[in-house]
Amino acid sequence: MDDKNEYVRLCEAAEISQGQARRFVVEGHEIAVARVGEELFAIGDVCSHGQFLLSEGEVDADDCTLECPKHGSLFNLRTGEPETLPATVAVAVYPLKSEDGALLVGIPKDDVNREDVNRDDVNSNSDDATERDNDRANS
Ligand code: FES
Questions:
Q1: How far is the CA of 129 from the centre of ligand 1 (A)?
Q2: pLDDT at 132 exceeding the cut of 50
Q3: What pLDDT is attached to residue 129?
Q4: pTM here?
Q5: Which domains does the chain have, with CATH numbers?
Q6: What backbone torsions phi and psi does residue 12 show, to the nearest 5 degrees?
Q7: Is the pLDDT of residue 30 over 70?
Q8: Residue 53 forms beta bridges with which residues?
């Protein structure tokens, strides 16, 4: 039982491939989901060192880490903690569960406006994110 989180469907669990991270934006939370073997992990997608997307980095299955594509900090997929510099601050860790093959992510209930839950917010490449990504690329 999880009283703190509201679970939102992301995709089919099978859609998350081995060795890749995938970006989702849910209720304002930017989330990187990665698979290591049979396990799936969800951590904050924005590096704590700079405004770069961890989902664009590489998954290391042996160490269970996701590498920031900018300066190479390795983030532990289980804890969100950076294991190497230059990042020193952990990113969020999100609970996941599967239901009938679907993958759901737990978002703090306080962040979910139930009057206005728009399931269209759940996507991997929203226009907002693309715009922001472009800004990052140009800075
Ligand atoms: S921006 Fe990620 S380690 Fe610097």
A1: 18
A2: no
A3: 46
A4: 0.81
A5: 5-138 (2.102.10.10)
A6: -75, 140
A7: yes
A8: 46
